[in-house]
UniProtKB/TrEMBL annotation, chain A:
NCBIfam families: PRK11274.1 (NF008434). Residues 14-44, 65-94 form the 4Fe-4S ferredoxin-type domain. Pfam families: CCG (PF02754), Fer4_8 (PF13183). Its cofactor is [4Fe-4S] cluster. It catalyses: (R)-lactate + A = pyruvate + AH2; glycolate + A = glyoxylate + AH2. PANTHER family: GLYCOLATE OXIDASE IRON-SULFUR SUBUNIT (PTHR32479). Keywords: 4Fe-4S, Electron transport, Iron, Iron-sulfur, Metal-binding, Repeat, Transport. Component of a complex that catalyzes the oxidation of glycolate to glyoxylate. InterPro entries: 4Fe4S_Fe-S-bd (IPR017896), 4Fe4S_Fe_S_CS (IPR017900), Cys_rich_dom (IPR004017), Glc_ox_4Fe-4S (IPR012257), Helical_ferredxn (IPR009051). This is Glycolate oxidase iron-sulfur subunit. The keyword Ubl conjugation does not apply. Coiled coil: none annotated. It comes from Deinococcus carri. The keyword Metal-binding applies.
Automatic annotation (TrEMBL), chain B:
It holds the Pfam family FAD-oxidase_C. Residues 57-229 form the FAD-binding PCMH-type domain. InterPro entries: FAD-bd_oxidored_4_C, FAD-bd_PCMH, FAD-bd_PCMH-like_sf, FAD-bd_PCMH_sub1, FAD-bd_PCMH_sub2, FAD-linked_Oxase-like_C, FAD-linked_OxidoTrans_Type4, Oxid_FAD_bind_N. Transmembrane segments: none annotated. Its cofactor is FAD. Keywords: FAD, Flavoprotein, Oxidoreductase. PANTHER family: GLYCOLATE OXIDASE SUBUNIT GLCD. Residues 1-24 are annotated as: Disordered. This is FAD-linked oxidoreductase Rv2280.
Length: 425, 474
C-alpha cells in the first residue's frame, strides 16, 4: 500500500514498518483469520484495518490516541500472517509499532504502574510464584473485585505447585546424540513446573544433554509486545550473552510464545550492531516439538510404550507455534507416534484462544469471549485429553474447559510423551 | 504444508464497537441520534478504514453505518438523502475495481452485520442477507446435500451483497455460471429509501441490479438457488513453455467436447508469487500453468473428460500431472485462489484488468498482451478463467518509481486488444473506477445513453455510488 512514512525520522524500526505497509495490498484475505474481526466484525479491528491505522499514525495523519484502542485489541496471534498471500510481515509491524508508540502513549499513573508491575512480575518466576500463591487465597473474593483484578485471579489454576529448581546440566541417558541449551521460561516455572521437568526427562531419555545457562533471563517477548522496547532490548542482549549458539546443536524452548520471541531477535535488533549475532542465535532456536520430531523423522526417537487403552487427544495449535513459527506438523507427529493415540482436529482450530501474553489482563472481555469459544470447540470433539505447547493457552483452555464443567486433563505435548515413556498414559 | 483457513461470519454476541466521544459532523450526529452509537461509526480512525477496497483508496466517508436490518438501511439512506450526500454500499471490500471505494465524501453503508441466513432444502434455496460471507452459504447448505456454486477467489471473505453488486464469478463459472445466475429474487432499498422485493419475471429488474455496483440500489437480501454438488471431481495440472500454447490447449479441449467444471490458468510470474507463499512444488520454470477440474455424477464421463483435456494439453506441447488425492486438488485450487493478492510480493500496486474475449481468439489475445507487456518495461502478468475467455492481465508497478500515466496508457492498450477481438471490459470484477475511462470505446454512444437513462430513472439525484461504471455524459 502506498505510504509516506518518514522512515528517516524513525530509524531502522521505521524501515521494518514501512516495508510491511508497502507489502499490504488490502485484499481482505486476512479478515476471516482474525479473532477480533470474528468477534467484532468491523474493519478497524481487522489486520487490514490496523495496518491502515498504523500507516496513518506513522504518517502523522491520525492521532495515536484515536488508533490505539483498535491496535490494543490485536492479540498478536499472527493468524493473518498465515492467511496473507502477499507476505505482509504483520507481526514485525505491530511489534515495532508498539515499541515506537509506547513512549508517546498517555496513560494514567495507575495504568502505568499496573503495566510496570506485570512486566516486573511475569519474568521473575519466584516473585510470580509468590504472587500466584497470594492470588490463590484471594480467589474466593474474586466476585467482589473490579474486572481488572478479577481477570488474573480467574486464570489461576486451583493449585499453584511448589517451584522446582533448574539443574544447570541434565546428562544424556544411554547413547549420547547431542547437546542443547534450554530456555527455562518464566510464568510456567511458577504455574506448571512439570513442563520443564518433563522436557528434561524426555530429552535425557533420547540421549540429549541439556544445559540451562545460568545467565539467561526472560525471552523479552512480553516486554516487546507491550511496547517496552528498552526493557526488551536489555533482556534480548542478556540472553545473547548467556547462550553461545556455537556451543549447542540447538537452543530449545517449550513455550510457543517464548520460542517465537527468541526467533524474533533479528527483527528486534534490525539495524543495530548486534543484528548478526541475533541471526546466528535465532538460526539455532527450535521449539521442543520441532527438535523431537526431527529425531522421530530420522528414526532416532526412543519408542513410547503403548497407551493402556485407545486414547483420543485434541491438539490445540498455539498461535505462536502454528502462525508465528509455522510449527503444525511436528507436535501432531509426536503424539501420533505414541501407539494407541488418535489426534483430533479442533473446529475453528486456527482461531486464537484469547490468552496471548498479557491480553487476558488488558482485554478481559474479548479474551473471555474467545476462551469460551475455544473451549466449546475443543470439547465438541469429546477428547480423552487436550494437548498444546504453550503455557498461556494451557492456562486459558484449562480455566475455560473447567468452567464448562469438563474435567478432561490439559497437558503440554511433552508431558504426554513423558507419560507415554513411563507407561502411564 | 498448506495453511488452513477459518471461514467465519462475524456477529457473535460480543460487545459491538461504538464510536467514542462526539460524532465528528452533522450527518454522523443525525445518524447516531436515529440509529444509536453502536450502529454508526463517526471518528476519524473509524471512517479512514471505510474508504478502500482491494484495489484502491477513495475519499474518507463522513459517516459509516453498520445496519442490522433493512429498516436500518432505509433510515440511513433517507438521512443521507436529506443531507444531500452520496451513499456507497460495501460488503467485505475485497472487490477489484474500486467499486466500494467512495469517489466522494458521503455515507458508507457496510453490510457485515446483516448476516441472517436460512436454508430451504425442499425448495433448494437460501435466503441470505447482504452481509452473509459467500462460503457460509455452502457451509450451511452442505448438510442438506446442497451447495452454492459461485466461488470468487475471495469467497472466505466476500459477502453475498458485494458478489451480487459486482456479479462476481469464480473458477466454477465455466460450467456453473456467475453469481447472477443463482439469484431467484432480491430485496433492495432504492435511492429514496423505499424497499422493493423483486423476482425474475416481467421486467428483470433484479438482473439490472446485479452487477450495477450499487449505482442503482442497495441489495439487502437475496433468494439464492442451491444445487447438489457433483459426485465426482478430478483435477489435473498442465504446464506449458508459453502462455499461447496453454490457450491453444484450452480451445482444443473445449472444441473436442469437454465441459470441465473449472479451467484456470496462471502465467509464470503468478505461479512464482504463489509458490513463494504456499511452497507446493508448482513448476516455477513453466511459462503457463493450467488447472482443470472435470466433474459430474458419472465417474466414467468425468474421467473421459479429463482424458480429453489431457490429450489436448499434450498435443499443445504441455506436461500433465494428475492430482493424486483430494488434498492435492485442494492445495492446487488454493494456489489459484491466492494469485491475485500474492502478486503484491512482486510490486506494491497493480492495475487490474478483467477482459473477456471469445475462446477462439484466446491464443492470439494472450500472446498480444504478453508482447505488449514485454515491450512496456512493466511487469505484466496474466491469469484467469480461461475457459470463459475471462482474462486478468495485471500491470504491477511501484508508484514511487513508475509513472501512473504510463500504467494507465498500457492498461488502455490492453483493453483495446480485447475490444478489437470482439471482447468486453469486465467479466466479474465490475467496471468501478478502474475501467470506467475505457467504457466509451467498449460501448457505443446510443447504448451508453440508454444506460444513463436507466441510471437517471432509478437514481435521479445521482446519489448512489457516484463516479462508478458510467463515464460522465458529454
Amino acid at each position: 500500500m502506498n505510504n509516506d512514512i518518514p522512515v528517516q525520522d524513525i530509524g531502522p524500526q521505521g524501515e521494518v514498518m514501512a516495508h510491511a505497509v508497502d507489502a499490504c495490498v488490502h485484499c481482505g484475505f486476512c479478515l476471516p483469520a482474525c479473532p477480533t474481526y470474528a468477534v467484532l466484525g468491523d474493519e478497524m479491528d481487522s489486520p487490514r484495518g490496523r495496518i491502515v491505522l498504523m500507516k496513518e499514525v506513522l504518517e502523522g495523519a491520525l492521532p495515536l490516541a484515536d488508533a490505539a484502542p483498535h491496535l490494543d485489541r490485536c492479540l498478536g496471534c499472527q493468524a493473518c500472517v498465515t492467511a496473507c498471500p502477499s507476505g505482509v510481515p504483520y507481526g514485525e509491524l505491530i511489534t515495532s509499532f508498539r515499541g515506537w508508540s509506547e513512549p508517546q502513549r498517555e496513560r494514567s499513573p495507575l495504568a502505568r504502574a499496573g503495566r510496570a508491575a506485570i512486566l516486573k512480575i511475569l519474568p521473575a518466576p519466584r516473585v510470580f510464584s509468590l504472587a500466584a500463591r497470594a492470588g490463590q487465597y484471594a480467589k474466593p473474593l474474586a466476585p467482589l473485585l473490579p474486572a481488572a483484578l478479577r481477570a488474573p485471579l480467574d486464570l489461576l489454576p486451583e493449585h499453584v505447585p511448589a517451584m522446582q529448581p533448574n539443574p544447570e546440566v541434565t546428562p544424556a541417558r544411554g547413547k549420547r546424540r547431542g547437546r542443547v541449551a534450554f530456555l527455562a521460561g518464566c510464568a510456567q516455572q511458577a504455574l506448571t513446573p512439570n513442563f520443564n521437568a518433563a522436557t528434561l526427562r524426555v530429552l535425557a531419555r533420547n540421549g540429549i544433554e541439556v544445559v540451562i545457562p545460568e545467565g539467561q533471563g526472560c525471552c523479552g517477548a512480553a516486554a516487546l509486545h507491550t511496547g517496552a522496547r528498552e526493557e526488551a532490548l536489555r533482556l534480548v542482549r542478556q540472553n545473547l550473552a548467556a547462550f553461545n549458539p556455537d556451543d549447542y546443536d540447538a537452543i530449545l524452548s517449550n513455550a510457543a510464545g517464548c520460542g517465537a520471541g527468541l526467533k524474533e531477535y533479528p527483527v528486534v535488533l534490525h539495524g543495530l550492531p548486534d543484528e548478526a549475532q541475533a541471526r546466528a542465535f535465532a538460526a539455532k532456536v527450535q521449539d521442543i516439538s520441532e527438535f523431537l520430531a526431527g529425531l522421530l523423522r530420522e528414526g532416532e526417537l526412543e519408542p513410547c510404550l503403548p497407551t493402556a487403552r485407545p486414547l483420543t487427544i485434541a491438539y490445540h495449535d498455539a498461535c505462536h507455534l502454528a502462525h508465528a513459527q509455522g510449527v503444525r506438523a511436528a507436535p501432531r507427529e509426536l503424539l501420533r507416534a505414541i501407539p494407541g493415540v488418535t489426534v483430533l482436529e479442533v473446529p475453528e482450530g486456527d482461531l486464537c484462544c484469547g490468552s496471548a501474553g498479557t491480553y487476558n489482563l488488558e482485554q478481559p472481555e474479548l479474551a473471555n469471549e474467545l476462551g469460551v469459544r475455544k473451549a466449546r470447540n475443543i470439547l465438541s470433539t469429546t477428547p480423552d485429553l487436550i494437548a498444546s505447547g504453550n503455557i498461556g493457552c494451557h492456562t486459558q483452555i484449562q480455566s475455560h474447559v473447567r468452567r464448562q464443567g469438563s474435567r478432561v486433563p490439559v497437558l503440554h505435548t511433552v508431558e504426554v510423551l513423558d507419560l507415554a515413556y513411563r507407561g502411564e498414559l | 504444508m498448506t495453511p488452513r483457513k477459518t471461514a467465519l461470519s462475524p456477529g457473535s454476541p460480543a460487545p459491538k464497537p461504538r464510536s467514542n466521544g462526539k460524532p465528528d459532523n452533522a450527518l454522523a450526529a443525525e445518524l447516531t441520534r436515529l440509529l444509536g452509537p453502536q450502529k454508526v461509526l463517526s471518528n476519524l480512525s473509524e471512517r479512514l478504514n471505510y474508504r478502500y477496497d482491494a484495489i484502491q483508496f477513495g475519499a474518507t466517508p463522513l459517516a459509516v453505518v453498520l445496519p442490522e436490518s433493512t429498516a436500518d438501511v432505509v433510515t440511513a439512506v433517507r438521512a443521507a438523502r436529506a443531507a444531500g450526500v452520496p451513499v456507497v454500499g460495501r460488503g467485505a471490500a475485497s472487490g477489484l475495481s474500486g467499486g466500494a471505494a467512495p469517489a466522494l465524501p458521503g455515507l458508507v453503508i457496510s453490510f457485515t452485520r446483516m448476516t441472517r441466513l436460512d436454508i430451504f432444502p425442499e425448495r433448494r434455496e437460501a435466503r441470505a442477507q447482504a452481509g452473509v460471507v459467500t462460503l457460509a452459504v455452502t457451509d450451511k447448505a452442505r448438510p442438506f446435500g446442497l451447495i452454492y456454486p459461485p466461488d470468487p477467489a475471495s469467497f472466505r471473505t466476500s459477502t453475498i451483497g458485494g458478489n451480487l453488486g459486482e456479479n462476481a464469478g469464480g473458477p466454477l463459472c465455466f460450467k456453473y455460471g456467475v453469481s447472477g445466475d443463482y439469484v431467484r429474487g432480491l430485496e433492495f432499498v432504492d435511492a429514496e429509501g423505499e424497499v422493493h422485493e423483486l423476482g425474475r419475471d416481467a421486467y428483470d429488474l433484479a438482473g439490472l441490479l446485479i452487477g450495477s455496483e450499487g449505482t442503482l440500489g442497495l441489495i439487502t437480501e437475496a433468494t439464492l438457488r442451491l444445487t447438489p454438488p457433483p459426485r465426482f471431481t478430478r483435477t489435473l495440472m498442465a504446464s506449458f513453455a508459453e502462455v499461447g500454447a496453454c490457450a491453444e490447449a484450452v480451445s482444443a479441449a473445449i472444441a473436442a467436447g469437454a465441459v470441465p467444471g473449472k479451467l484456470e490458468f496462471m502465467d509464470q510470474a503468478c505461479t512464482n508469487a504463489v509458490e513463494d507463499y504456499l511452497h507446493l512444488g508448482l513448476p516455477r520454470e513453466a511459462g503457463a500453468v493450467l488447472l482443470v477440474d472435470t466433474d459430474g455424477d458419472d465417474l466414467d464421463t468425468v474421467e473421459e473428460e479429463r482424458a480429453l483435456v489431457e490429450a489436448a494439453c499434450l498435443a499443445a506441447g504441455g506436461t500433465v500431472r494428475r492430482a493424486a488425492s483430494d488434498a492435492e486438488s485442494a492445495a492446487l485450487w488454493q494456489a489459484r485462489r491466492s494469485v491475485s493478492p500474492a502478486l503484491g510480493r512482486i510490486r506494491p500496486q497493480r492495475m487490474n484488468e478483467d477482459i473477456v474475449v471469445p475462446r477462439s481468439v484466446l491464443p492470439d489475445v494472450v500472446r498480444e498482451i504478453r508482447a505488449l507487456g514485454d515491450a512496456s518495461g512493466f511487469h505484466v502478468v496474466q491469469f484467469g478463467h480461461i475457459g470463459d475467455g475471462n482474462l486478468h492481465p495485471n500491470i504491477l508497478f511501484d508508484p514511487r518509481r513508475e509513472s501512473p500515466e504510463a500504467v494507465h496508457d498500457l492498461a488502455h492498450r490492453i483493453a483495446l486488444v480485447a475490444i478489437r477481438h470482439g471482447g468486453v471490459l469486465s467479466g466479474e470484477h465490475g467496471i468501478g473506477t478502474m475501467k470506467r475511462p475505457f467504457m466509451r470505446e467498449a460501448v457505443d454512444p446510443v447504448t451508453l445513453s440508454a444506460l444513463w437513462d436507466v441510471k437517471r430513472a432509478l437514481d435521479p439525484a445521482g446519489a448512489l455510488n457516484p463516479g462508478k461504471v458510467l463515464p460522465e455524459e458529454e
